[in-house]
Specification:
By secondary structure, the protein is an all-alpha fold. It has helices at residues 3-11, 23-32, 38-49, 62-72. The chain is built from four helices and no strands. The N and C termini lie close together (10 Å).
Length: 80
């Protein structure tokens, strides 16, 4: 998947359309992708990606989430 596809996929779970991904939205995304232990993975993903500690993943932190997804979720994301 490309970075653009990853952003678009993640954006589908931004239910309040605020441009940020909450813990619940991330959990829904992991669960929607067929991931097991979604609550644990989203907690770890949020901890890893949320560099400012506000409880959300915003546009400035998306690369942190990409790194986490590639290392721990088996997602392959390429830059095109």
């Amino acid at each position: 998947m490309t970075m653009q596809e990853f952003r678009a996929w993640l954006g589908r779970f931004d239910t309040d359309k605020d441009g940020k991904i909450s813990r619940q939205e991330l959990s829904d995304a992991v669960r929607g992708a067929g991931g097991r232990f979604a609550w644990w993975k989203c907690r770890q993903g949020l901890r890893s990606a949320d560099s400012d500690g506000n409880g959300y993943i915003d546009a400035n932190e998306i690369n942190n989430l990409v790194d986490f997804a590639q290392k721990h979720l088996g997602v392959r994301i390429v830059n095109f």
